Amino acid sequence: MQRRRGPTARPTAACAPSIGKLARLTAEVTGYRARVAFDTSRPGVPRVGSRTAAACMPEAACRRPRLPKGCGRGMHGGSGTASADLIGTAIHRWRMKTNPYGAVFEGFRPWSGVVPAGLRAGFLGNVSVIDRLYPGKYIERLRDEAKEARFVRTARPLPRHTDYFEMGAVLSSVAAAQKQFSMMELGAGTGPWTAAAACATLQTGVKERFFVAVEAEPTRFQWLGENLAINGIRQNERSIYQGVVFPSSKRDHRILFPVGAPMDAGQFACIDEPLNSRIGQKRRVNLYGLEEEAHLEPARVITLGDLLSWHQDTIFDIVHIDIQGAEAEVIDDARHKLDAQVRAVAIGTHGEKIERSLRDILMGLGWVCIFDFPRNGSFTVDGDEISTRDLDGFQHWMNPRLHLSNAQDGE
């Protein structure tokens, strides 16, 4: 299959605003309520020109930001302000601690249908094997409900849990895609975000899809392939790799990964000690009464740069990253290829220092932060406090240069 590429590997000098210009654009749209409505005929795609400026905003704050000269046209053939509207709306809502994904969710229909025994269905119709979900008290209830095939009518999720915002990031990229959609999931586990995105594309005008996923644990890697298959992703639509996603600086080290406890999705890789090797060292885990024992084995190192090089003719609409603490190093290591080939990232974060580093790296590239919340804390959205206690943080960033080229692809 011919993989999609933007107009060029990187925007031309005329189309690539300087970091300074992007910073001024970001500053300008931060205080501006974009005039955007969402066209329900195509989920999440902005329609420019509707009168939705907030009454409480001063008239001067409702001016449309002007993009640097030569930056392309908008979503529906208008000026470049259409893409700025989408970015501007997200920035404004993030600054005001309001939900930037509500209209995106509204653009996708909840699924209903018959779910086979032993499976659970998400609101897009994406399914997962219940016995392979992360253990918890809810599993027994799901098992009881899924003893036989049954008709299920799903509903859109509410912004009450952190998963809502990760899903919002993925759906934003699906909604913005034109005829083609490409996604990468690092630290994929069974590939839940890939499966959800694949089902979401069935409701849009996407004609071609391509998915890349990476998982290190051997049993979970097998489950990954099976899960993508039961969610309708064909062999020619995917490339999956078994390995640990690390920066290239770690390639010369022997990297170990816990093998044998596939239910523990929080496992992380480590560097072996040459004079005191830990190969075979055991780790016992107890997950809500489920006991597993893992042992450390050497793992293949795959970098984000490797993946982007192997798929150099593909522009990825979104890269979802959950790699247990290596995320900042991995992003920094591949920053230039990332900037040239990726429209957006959704990152699970694992510490305040990592979160700060990611902001420094991606802001330095001129990317725009759509949403951001901390690990093991709390945040407020639309007046509701959401706890992230014992949970990962999250950051969603958009690449304005390639976001604009995506709009041009649809003309």
Overview of the structural elements:
The protein has 411 residues and is of the alpha/beta class. Among the domains are: 19-104, no CATH class; 109-155, no CATH class; 252-298, no CATH class. It is 30% helix and 23% strand. The chain contains twelve helices and 21 strands. Strands 9-8-7-16-17-21-18 form a seven-stranded mixed sheet, with helices on both faces. Strands 12-11-14-13 form a four-stranded antiparallel sheet, with no helix packed on it. Strands 1-2 form a two-stranded antiparallel ribbon. Strand 7 (180-186), helix 6 (192-201) and strand 8 form a beta-alpha-beta unit. Helix 5 packs across helix 6 (192-201) and helix 9 runs parallel beside helix 11 (352-364). The longest helix is centred in the N-terminal third of the chain and has 15 residues, at 81-95. It is globular, with a radius of gyration of 21 Å. The two termini are 22 Å apart. The relative contact order is 0.14.
In quaternary terms, these chains amount to single chain
Overall shape: it is globular
The major beta sheet can be summarized as:
7 strands, mixed
Strand content: 15-25%
